[in-house]
Predict the 3D structure of the following.
Amino acid sequence: MQLLTVFLLIALSGIPAAAESGASVATIGSKKYDSLAAAIKKVKNNETIVLEKSVICDQNLQLNANKKYTINFNNKTLTLKRGTSLLVKKGKVTFAKARITHEDTKGTILTVSKGVTLNIGNGTYKGKISNAGVLNISGGQFASLEEKTDLESTLIMNKGTMTVSGGTFDGTQCLLNGTGATLTVKEGKKGCKFSSKCFCTLLNFGTATLEGGTYISKQDWPIIWTEGPETVAKTTVKNGTFTSEWTMLESYGEARVTVSGGKFTSKAPKQSDIAMLLAFSGNINVTGGTFKAKNIGLYGSDAKGKVTVAENVQNAAKTKGKEVTIQHLE
């Protein structure tokens, strides 16, 4: 009876029980802890917590140690129940060998607070991520669990500072960079690949700089959509490989897009009023890069937008035409 009471208390408290009686769930050096939460409370600067057992969390798991430390998930699985998330509240934390998933296809697996730094170098992450701090990703596999076709199903929502130098990202929409947020994608050793099922690979309302990576859009949406006042919404493309079933870059609401490099290929069907580069009240300036499309033109704008493409880029572009006229969207 007493043993049953203990397990009931553990379940109600949201602390994952060990798989075997007396077995530790996490360790710090030679010290053993019966839950990951208990280890987080005791961790010191520059220490590593090792997860020894796969765990299921039925309450939010808070990482609130204001320390610099690593969690080695040791290829064990952390499963979050409906309505819960892993909340990174304080500190400078590094994740290694993680396998984090959510039982709710709409669930958010990671929420990074303002003032926090989270480094991810490998692992598997299935579910949505929200960042308001500093998020550095140099590797790993990231995937959405849902097939929902709206903007709420964005794989990673960035409201802080985010740097990506490696990893694969698969979602309905891979990245949403919010107003005031900063996103940088670098051409790291491991490479970056972003693949969207229904919407853009990047919807940018802040500042985004793309220095490399592979971007694939599988539906009739642009690879990158930039929107907002020109003092706020800026996308800079320096390099990368971009392949779309529709357009490449679209600019709205006075947003500024500049392109100095990259390889752009559109597989869009024949359309008279779309092009690879479209400015709906925004601005796009192209000084470099290569552009290839079989059925659509190179660029277009409405009365409130402007696209400027360097002559050498125009001459080298392989499209059916140079410029199209588009209708302004109110």
